[in-house]
Amino acid sequence: MKMSSSVKSKLNSLASFQQTLLKRQMQLKDLEKEKLEIQSKNKMYILWTVIIVFLLFGSTLYYSYHQKKKANTLLFLQKEEIRSALIKLQTTQTQLIQKEKMASLGELTAGIAHEIQNPLNFVNNYSEVNMELMEELEEEVKKDNKEEVKALLTDLRENESKIHHHGKRADAIVQGMLQHSRTSSGTKELTNLNALADEYLRLAYQSFLAKEPGLEIELSTDYEKNLPLIEVVPQDIGRVLLNILNNAFQACAEKSRMQLKGYKPNVKITTKKLGGSIEISIADNGNGIPDGILDKIFQPFFTTRPTGQGTGLGLSLAYDIVKAHGGELKVESENGKMTEFLIELPVSAVPQANEKS
User: Fold this and answer.
1) In this predicted structure, what is the pLDDT of residue 172?
2) Contact partners, residue 357, CB within 8 Å, separation at least 6
3) What distance in Å separates the CA atoms of residue 236 and residue 43, rounded to the nearest whole number?
4) Which residues of the chain have pLDDT under 70?
């Protein structure tokens, strides 16, 4: 039996559709396979990316750890170097402070040497006169000249009294030297600042004259009467006074060398009561301190003197000593005209007896 043309046509169309469907299924399988391959590749890329990132992160951490360890080692070495340098600096500072103290002691000793020379001269002179009087006395005794013997004995007694007086004076100066030269115990004592200032003014000036014998400086004092005693460490405050006075005399000497017409060097020391404190003023009419360095003079190791002529610790130590006493150390200066140091020390709260200067 023969199929009709329409049936054949439908069969052909069905076959063609099946082939097309088969091709589509094959294409879908290929696409699915390609998709799986792409996904597999993407997973591989992601895995490698994760591995690379991990390796980079690990390397960064290792590098950071290594650098930190290296930095810590370097920091430790630097700390050790700084510690060693600090120990050396502290040792050097201690030596310089001791040198400054010894320099102050040298200034004090020079002044005392001149002070003690005067009573010794009196002792020597009166001793020589007494030796001559004793020879005259022996002759008058042989002559039995009673009136002359009495006169000679009177002269001998007077001279012996003077020898005793000046001997005691020399002894007091030596005791003062021993007291001021010994290491400070740091113990505060009730002190008459008028007497302390006057003593160090005299000693500092005598020491200055030993170095500048041809130069005279007018010394002025204005001590407030009935100044209360104050608790201080006398040796330490003495060092403060000595240092500032030495600077004052030096300033006057430098200006004197300029040979300015009508210039008369003067150093003045004043004391006065200010409420709950006592102020000591030391003023000179030297060249003053330039404005550019006025705020540096209390800094350790700062000095305007030539190398080898100063440690630069004098005023720094003075400042520390005054501060340790609960006081203030200030300076006022006019370049080319004057300098004034003001030492303000608190009055102790303990009962005190008034002492006249």
Assistant:
1) 65
2) 192, 194, 195, 198, 223, 224, 225, 227
3) 86
4) 1-4, 7, 92-115, 172-186, 300-313, 348-357
> Given this model, what pLDDT does residue 356 score?
40
Distance (Å, whole) CA 71 – CA 73: 5
What percent of the residues of the chain are helix, what percent strand, and what percent coil, each to the nearest 5?
65, 15, 20
CA 238 to CA 200: how far, in whole Å?
A: 7
Q: What is the pLDDT of residue 350?
A: 40
Give the N- to C-terminal CA distance of the chain in Å, as an integer.
163
Instruction: Round to whole Å and give the CA distance between 267 and 201.
Output: 9
Task: Note whether 336 and 285 are within 8 A (CB).
Answer: no
Among 327, 342, 351, CA closest to 232 = 327
Q: Residues of the chain with pLDDT > 70: what percent?
A: 81
Cα gap 53→59, rounded to integer Å = 10
> Which segments of 229-355 are extended strands (E)?
230-232, 266-274, 277-284, 328-334, 338-346, 354-355
Would you give the DSSP letter of residue 339?
E
**Angle CA(222)–CA(212)–CA(284) in degrees, nearest 5?**
30
What letter represents residue 68's amino acid?
A: K
Over residues 56-86, the pLDDT tens digits come to 888 888 888 888 888 888 888 888 888 887 7
Burial class (CB in 10 A: 0-12, 13-18, 19+), 347: middle
Q: Which CATH class is domain 191-355?
A: alpha beta
Strand 266-274 with 218-223, pairing: parallel
- Sort 205 into a burial class: Cβ within 10 Å, 0-12 / 13-18 / 19+: buried
pLDDT at residue 355, as a whole number = 41
E-strand ranges in the chain read: 189-191, 218-223, 227-228, 230-232, 266-274, 277-284, 328-334, 338-346, 354-355
